[in-house]
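Reviewers of the previous submission asked for a worked example of the structure-prediction workflow described in the proposal, so we include one complete record here. The input consisted solely of the amino acid sequence. No template or homolog information was supplied to the procedure at any stage.
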Amino acid sequence: MNKRRVAGVVSILVGLTLALSATSLAANGYKVWGTAWHRPPTGSVFSVLSHGVAPQKALLRVYLDRQPCRWTWASEANRFPAFKAGQSYFKDTGRAVVTLWVSGHFSKAFTARAGTTAQPEYACSYLTIPNSHGLYRITAARRSNAYFVSN
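From that input alone, the workflow returned the following structure tokens.
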């Protein structure tokens, strides 16, 4: 087997492992749904809703992003750029990310301001649970919601 083929097989196995881990966590009761106003006009105020279930205390992280959502919170956070003028943001934080502790059934509406450029954007919601060190870094559930900032 050549090195490329081995690397491809390893990549597939890692992807399957991550997918199965996320599926098993979701099967344990962690679920998140998110929605954003479908076509907010540029510069307008709109709502981003996040609701779901967290059997144990979890940290909800919601990002407004110009790129499609990543599969895990960690990869989203690592790729997430510094705030740039003109992009959508949450009014409470003045940034394109907001966090909230949740447990049980939850439903939260966040107020956001649409960016200044007409383009597709994404509301990326992640429920994270603690790792063995007690840090909330394991993605237990995720949801991606596309919307379009319009003129």
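The CA atoms of residues 75 and 133 lie 19 Å apart. We consider this example representative of the routine output the project will generate in years two and three.
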